UniProtKB/TrEMBL annotation:
Pfam families: XdhC_C
Protein name: XdhC family protein
InterPro entries hit by this protein: MoCofactor_Util/Proc, XdhC_Rossmann_dom
Ranges where the XdhC Rossmann domain occurs: 19-136
């Protein structure tokens, strides 16, 4: 009898952590969904980036609060780090000022994902979190995301 081919692997590839600032319903949903796909998540509740938000090589950084007092510093540090994914929750309009500020300082914002996530159309925290985790997973495999059907 031929063994059945499974479309999954028992142990996913090792990946970096997902660092999320700050604690809100979207951040908590990211933690649940990302944990379900085998990712380690650190949600930093301090609005100033806290002591734990130090990206390591391979980490993903998601700023869930573009109004956090230290948002520019968090993004500056994340974009200068070896994080493989840096994103911010914000509408394009609301992010323009912050991106312009960082660009004026000479920060390369070309890899910043704003708004964070894939365009799934969801509005609820869990739906938004799903789109962000999907984008992180796609990025970690070098994929653009989108439908599997050809």
């Amino acid at each position: 009898m031929t063994p059945r081919e499974q479309p999954w692997v028992a142990e996913p590839e090792q990946t970096g952590r997902i660092l999320v600032l700050s604690d809100n319903p979207i951040a908590r949903a990211i933690a649940v969904i990302a944990s379900a796909v085998g990712r380690t998540v650190l949600v930093e509740s301090a609005d100033d980036g806290g002591p734990g938000l130090e990206p390591q090589p391979g980490d993903a950084v998601v700023l869930c609060d573009h109004d956090a007092p230290d948002a520019p510093a968090v993004l500056r540090a994340a974009l200068a780090s070896e994080a493989v994914y840096v994103a911010m929750m914000a509408s394009r309009r609301r992010a323009e000022g912050l991106v312009a500020e960082l660009s004026a300082e000479g920060v390369d914002t070309g890899t910043l994902h704003v708004p964070a996530g894939h365009n799934l159309g969801g509005k609820a925290p869990g739906e938004i979190a799903l789109s962000v985790v999907a984008e992180i997973v796609a990025e970690s495999y070098g994929r653009p995301g989108g439908p599997m059907r050809g």
